[in-house]
Amino acid sequence: MTGSSADGRLVDAYDLVILDLDGVIYLVDRPIETGVAAVSRLYAEGRPLTYATNNASRRAVEVATLLTSMGLSARPEEVLTSAGAAAEVLAERFPADSAVLVVGAEALRAEVRAAGLRPVARLEDAPVAVVQGYGPQVGWADLAEAALAVRAGAEWIATNTDRTLPTLRGPVPGNGSLVAVLRTALGREPDLVIGKPGPALFTTAARRTGAVRPLAVGDRLDTDIEGAVRAGMDSLLVLTGVSTPTELLHAPVHARPTYVAETLDGLFDPAGVAQLPGPTAMRPTGSTGWRVTREKAIGVLAGSGSRVEALRALCVEFWSAEGPLEVVRPADDEARATLEALGLLAASASE
Predict the structure, then answer these.
(1) 3-state secondary structure of 201
(2) Which of 275, 303, 329 is the last residue of a domain?
(3) Structural contact between residues 335 and 349, judged by C-beta atoms closer than 8 angstroms
(4) Chain centre to alpha carbon of residue 292
(5) pTM for the whole thing?
(6) How does DSSP classify residue 168?
(7) Using one digit for the tens of pLDDT, what is the confidence trace for 274-302?
(8) 162 belongs to the catalytic site
(9) 3, 183, 215, 346: least surrounded by Cβ within 10 Å?
């Protein structure tokens, strides 16, 4: 669904912007200034937007309240959470007042209750399903009850499988790490994963708004970007959260974004965003300012320009039919500074 022009603003090519939260607009509860400023501009221009988050520890109204405290005019109906989506699925599958064992935060229990089901915490309550979401207080006892319930025949639904969560101190274990505990104990996968990288949050957002050219924005290749690919949507990776330039260079085909920008400003600044090589690319995928010369698995970056343009030139080579480069070396001081700023110099300089 690419609709960008070679010289226009990225945002002008799409009729809906679907925004991840953690790592895009804030880190935990601390605003990312560039993210908040960009979203404020979306509101000021009357651009349709939806927030789609895997985080199951807050309800939509709580997310909207948090965003409002950051100066954004967010409304609960603009927020899609994996907790709310999971509760909707459970309500479709089981009769009203069915017992559901909840592993996660109070927000997930509240969503299950609002869907007409009965949250429980023990095997003895005969749960028909286990729903597992992130909660900072989840412990061994919660996971043990969940394992027992699944072994007894309860359906196992995970809100998401994010391995980590971004924080100011660095990534920490997310719900995917807790799901991995049960996966190890049970020797099986969840029956259903609701959130990203599944396409449901993206397709629901488009359906609710009637969008035909949505753009998904996120900071994670393995959830936000892969989910957009599965949903058949264009995507923008911002480098303010979890995924790094190194991970982008080594991204598998099913988790490669359409665009990359250092911050959410790339929605409005044509010079701050680069379109990456891919089957739907409309902008040139080679960089006019940067070039990478290649000899087998060794590449040399030369030229000048923005960091995202350099990253695009590197992606062209890493994603080529010849395979990833093993080493990238700078040709001069400007290339060295650019590689260092992208976190790519250490590996290159080790040769």
Answers:
(1) helix
(2) 275
(3) no
(4) 29
(5) 0.84
(6) T
(7) 999 986 544 444 446 999 999 888 999 99
(8) no
(9) 346
Q: Taking CA 261 as the corner, what is the angle to CA 259 and CA 264, rounded to the nearest 5 degrees? A: 110
Q: Is 269 a catalytic residue?
A: no
Choice among 7, 12, 15, 22 that is catalytic: 22
Residues 188 and 163: their CA atoms lie apart, in Å, by: 17
Catalytic residue among 15, 20, 29, 219: 20
Please say whether the dihedral angle defined by the alpha carbons of residues 321, 327, 333 and 335, taken in this order, is positive or negative.
positive
The owner of tokens 């900071």 is: 219
State pLDDT tens for residues 150-180: 999 999 999 999 888 878 888 899 999 999 9
DSSP β-bridge partners for residue 236: 217, 259
Residue 159 lies in a domain: yes
Residues 300 and 331 sit within 8 Å (Cβ to Cβ):
yes
E runs forming strands in the chain: 16-19, 26-27, 30-31, 49-53, 79-81, 99-103, 118-120, 129-132, 155-158, 164-165, 172-173, 192-193, 214-218, 234-238, 259-261, 273-275, 290-295, 298-303, 327-330
Query: Rg of the chain's alpha carbons, rounded to an integer?
Result: 21
What is the extent of the structural domain holding 188?
A: 83-193
* Beta-bridge partners for 19: 51, 217
